[in-house]
Amino acid sequence: MNQKAVTISPSQLIRFLDQELKELPDNRKGDNKKYTVNHALKAGFSAFFTQSPSFLQHQRLMKPKKGKDNAQSLFGLEAIPCDNQIRKLLDPIRASTVFGAFKTTYKWLETNQIIKQFKYLDNQILIALNGTEYYSSKKINCPHCNCRKHRNGSVTYYHQAVTPVIVSPSKKQVILKDTASHINFPPEFIKKQDGRRKQDCENAAVKRWLSSNIIEEAKEEITLLRDDLYSRQPICKLALEQGYNFIFVAKPSSHQTLYE
Ligand SMILES: [Zn+2]
Q: Are residues 211 and 114 in the same domain?
């Protein structure tokens, strides 16, 4: 089938992000406020959007090239704050502040018939759940960090998240976020929960995600995909109770009775 590619532009995404950024806390003292929190958030977004491996490379990319200023033309930013400024401004902001932007983006994709193109296997939306690590350090850590203890006695602190991603075998692109159009499905962070000493793990995180994302009046059929990590009775049971279908890999080594 020959489908016309519809793409969502960075400036459109910035507009969606903007709608969520009305009253951001700004705890800075003094008058040196060249950049606003809103500005820093958009700059942070542009760093991820361009998939730059570092802030330094991002800075270079945003600089004017052949008379064209990428920061301005792609993201509507007058100037890009440096990484320290971005971190300082964004650290106090909760990630959930911008979760609404996932929903608006999904709505846009739905209205523009893009979600429809992703449907597969009797009109199913396929959601791949995946644990992904987005922070790691041997030094810098916070009370929510999980940690890995190494043989040489050193410790790596890290943060991960379960990210629900819409995938389709016929598409090169993936869509991060939402499953049913009437619910908003943000990522679930894998982090030590408040007041807990125990490490968090992906299985516990996906259970939290399933518990808080029930499909009540399913307008859409959703099939969850994951490797052998989730093919355990408690997760399968919870997925069905919450209204999902699932395809989880079951390895012979972890499902001996089933294979017999
Ligand atoms: Zn941490």
A: yes
